[in-house]
Amino acid sequence: MAEFEAACAKVLHKDGHAALQYAASEGFGPLREMVAATLPWPVDPSQILITTGSQQGLDLVAKVLAETGSKILVESPTYLGAVMAFTPMEPEIISVTNDADGIDLVDLAGKAQEARFLYVQPNFQNPTGRTMSAARRTALSWQAEQLGLPLIEDNPYGDLWFDAAPPAPLTALNPQGCIYLGSFSKVLAPGLRLGFIVAPQAVYPKLLQAKQAADLHSPGFNQRLVAEVMKEGFLDRHVPTIRALYKSQRDAMLEALAREMPVGEPDSTLSWNTPSGGMFLWARLPKGMNAVDFLPHAVAQGVAFVPGAPFYADHGDPRTLRLSFVTPSVEEIHRGVASLAKAYKNYAAGA
Question: Which of 42, 267, 71, 57 is nearest to 183 (CA)?
Fold first, then answer.
């Protein structure tokens, strides 16, 4: 809070009048330059469009690239907020299957014809927490280029790695074939509602036009505040502390699940993955169980989760559920998982 308080005072003292006025739709110039400088491939600041959260970026992409009846492709499962952003344009949203390494390229090839784009979250995906391998990124980038299929790369969680940074972004492999979305919400503060788009020059004017129609520009004060905080190197100091905290919370959840949940084969008991970063863990109930039916039992024990089926654009898996480990403390995670295990045993007894 001290850094934000100091940055607010500096912005108001040095540039208060401009910070509270209308501003350029593209975004605050120094912030665009800082964003470009942080990306791991050469980016001109003129390619950066500051958005009101990365969620607005998804909305702008949909408005520019989708229309009624057009085909767009998503992962299975995928980020629910993306489906919500795309749906008002009334496209046909089609799921592409995935394995542990990422997008299934054979399935993609069979569905890519006439698709407007493929939307992906390669790093610590919401909801599954999975990360696309380097080899799969290279293969996907090459195949998308051959198919003439634009990629929409959404990377809100990429800085939240625990032991090793994720592979290079898809956009770094083919900048002209991708639109990249980033966010300040996960590393600074979600209440600032600031994100950004990196777009090829061919599509940037259309995205800018959609941005102007939506809200003219993102809040100028907030943009200057973020630029001031970044200027002082706050992110370099702050992000490693977030990583360490989230890793300890993930480890606590994995430890508690292993201790509290029954042991068995994946189809006979609850199973879960081990994300290498991000905020979420993906779990799956045994055959014959349904996460929506399980939820009231969990709530009765004072805990909650998000059923997984809504994260699928089609053919949702009712056995899946998402657990978040970043909000509660380590102690609360241990208590919460113990309560979840009690709810699971109660539900399993009656299933």
Answer: 57
